[in-house]
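User: Predict structure, ligand zinc ion.
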Amino acid sequence: MAVPKQGHTRAKVGKSRMHKYIEPVRLNVCPKCKKPVLSHTVCLNCGFYKGKEVINVLAKLTKKDQKVREKEIKQAEKPDKST
Ligand SMILES: [Zn+2]
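Assistant: Predicted complex:
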């Protein structure tokens, strides 16, 4: 088996690894509810994508939770209209 003649210095190892790192996930902001969302993905908080409702988020919740979620979404929309 081939054996390396000389070992790499720490600097050489560091240089080759300087481009190997994990980048933080880049998130967009949902235009409807202002929550962070992955790009090209349906917002799981309000169920909207490209201005259309794709998932009915409220359907699976209990009535109490539905009211809370509706309030949250409405509150997130209000400041948008004023600006
Ligand atoms: Zn949303």
